[in-house]
Amino acid sequence: MRLKKFSVLNYKVFNTKFSIDFSSENIVILTGRNNTGKSTFLEAINQFYLPTTAKAKIPVECYSNQDENKTIELEAEFVVDSETGETVTIVKKYSNDNGKYFDTQGTEIKRTHELKETLDEILANSPYYITPYMTTEEIDKQVQEIYSQIITAELSKLEMEEFDEEELQAIKSEYLELKSSIPRLLKKLKSKTDFSLSNVSDSVSKSLQSVFSNSSLQLSVQGGESNGFSVSDIVKSTSSSVLIGNMHSSDMPLSTQGTGIQRMSLIYIIQNMIEQGLMGTNSTQKMLLIDEPEAFLHPEAVRALSRSLYAIGSRMPLIISTHSPVLIDLSENHTTIQVFRIGKTEAIELYQSSSSQFDEDDIKNMKLLNYADSYVNEFFFADKIIVVEGDTEYVAFKHFIKERGLNIHVIRARGKATICSLMKILNQFNTRYYILHDIDNHERFTHSTLKAQQTNCYNIYALKEDSTRIFGSVPNLERAIGLGDVPNSKKTETIHRIIHDAVDSSYIQAREKVEKVFNYIFSLENQMSLEHPFIEIIRDKDYENLFTPLLNQERKVLKRKSKAVSKMEQVSFDM
């Protein structure tokens, strides 16, 4: 059964009803600022599955505003039939007690309720829940639970499947013999015990008849029937442990290691057991809940963790809360991701992946981007997003954003081909974004170079969505702000002077022009128009108007020159 929707009311920070609708995607990522409830929401899902016991009431700290007069409601909707889409909704309520389960009409689900069997099946598949502050005992308990699940699966296979290997045949034969011999033994014991109990019954009956002066009183002590043993009986008798070693020591308990290693070990255990086919199959509906998986890990470990999470998410439902953009790996094929931003009153679905649009070149571009800029995927956490082509506009825009405290993410593409790859990513997640790139219709370019640049521009426009806005610098940013053509070796110095120079008028004017473009793109001032030589691309003909005059002029030059120069010179000129 897949969790389709989860709602929480009066649980800690959620003093009004807060819900998230999950898609059929296997990986769900919860983002948001601190203290908005990301971790609490995961905790509430886990709380729904926790057993209700008469001895343990839910702590008062779990009630919103610590008011036990309120009723905590944890409502879960599950898909019970993936083909028909049939769902069932169950509500767990805490009213200053240990918690009870109800149907949507408010009837408690007790032993005779029609949903009791469904509820038992749901609770039998409680999620694995990993938090940043798990104790070593809690980690050991998770390992034992995983181990028990594997033992259960293996015993079920012994009963259901046939094996060719002699060793497995022998194990199955021994298991089945044990399973049948124990009931026989218990039956013999019962026969002997029943004889003794019969004597006890007669003796007690006579005593009761005498005390109550009633000769018809009869008491009978009977032994119960036994069907042998169940799989759960074997599981209860097993235990597991995790040992770890290094060059200085060996076989040390995992509990002696640092928090980061403990949690990564647990996640790796889950990943590898999935890959070995020991868990995470379609027949098991276990979820994995991880609160801030990046906690206590150095950057390279976070990258490794990201790869593990995608491997896990391909086989079992995974919900994580995170502050780390690194966990959203752009080079992965995003066909299973749903991303939410948790706010105080609602969860905003930022992105939900659809069918993949990426070819091999796109994947290569995205991998290169990740090497060059670890935080290119911060766009998942930003209010507004802009993709720029070069370093100058990237550094300048980042300066304005920091200066004004804006939540805008700038992605530096370093080339038009990569802009296209990034647009595919942003389009896939239904994102509104802006593009600022160089037109590169430079008068010094040859005919073939101009045609290539025009094609690059058309490729960008072809990926434009209705919510996308594209802006161009004519012919490039440095010339558009009045600095002329700046060689690559001078760009770092130029960027610094654009931002900080308060003396040189050319750099002051350049900074003002960049800032005007920045303000116009993000509608930060009442600026009615975009000043030339910047342009907003509304239709592909806008590109044509920028390139055609230069292309026509180039062709005329070639025709005029062709009579006066040799064939070899024509080729040289064209190059």
Automatic annotation (TrEMBL):
Residues 24-346 form the AAA+ ATPase domain. CDD domains: TOPRIM_OLD. InterPro entries: AAA+_ATPase, AAA_GajA/Old/RecF-like, Bact_Antivir_Def_Nuclease, P-loop_NTPase, TOPRIM_OLD. Gene3D superfamilies: P-loop containing nucleotide triphosphate hydrolases. It holds the Pfam family AAA_15. This is AAA family ATPase.
